[in-house]
Design goal:
Length: 185
Amino acid sequence: MAVLPIYTDGSPVLRKKALPVKQLTDDVIQLIMDMFETMRKASGIGLAANQVGVLQRVISIDVSEIEGLENIKPFALINPEVIDKKDSWTIEEGCLSVPDVRDEVERAKTIKVRFKDTGFHDREIEAGDLLARVMLHEIDHLNGILFIDYLTPEKRKMHAELLQKIHRGEIEVNYPVVTAADIPL
Ligand SMILES: [Zn+2]
C-alpha cells in the first residue's frame, strides 16, 4: 500500500467528472487500498479518487474514529449513486483538498445510496447524519464539486485569502499534496 499525494483546490482533476468503474481489476483494488492508506495518513473520514488524481468513481469512508460510529468498519463504494434523499441539516465541513477552510453546508440528512462493494456486488445502504454527509461530500467530488461551491459569495470572500494561498501551494499539512502550483500550465 502507498500513501498517495492529495490534490488540492485549483488542481483541474478536482473539477472533472470521474468515470464509472466497469470491471474490478487489480488496479482498482490497488487504488482502493492506497486510498485507505492515504485517508488514514491524512486523518480523513472520507476520500474520493479524484483527490488522488484518479478519475474513477471510487470513494473510501472511515468514520470509525467518530463517537457513536465506531461500529461502522471502513468501507469503499464503487460507482455510488444517491437514489433517495430526505430532510436536510446544516453543519460545518472541511476537506483534505481545501486545507484549513471550514464552513457550514446544508445537505440531506438521510440518504439511500446504491453502489458496488469491493467484491463488485450490488449493494444499497441507507445512511443518516454524519455518515450521509460524508458520502454526499465524497460523491460530489466524483462530479467535480467541492463543498466551497455551496458557499455564498460573501462567505467565499471571507475565505479568499486562504484559498489563494492554497492555489499558490502555500500549504502546511502533515500529508503529501499536489497543488495547482505543482501542475505545469
Ligand atoms: Zn473533500
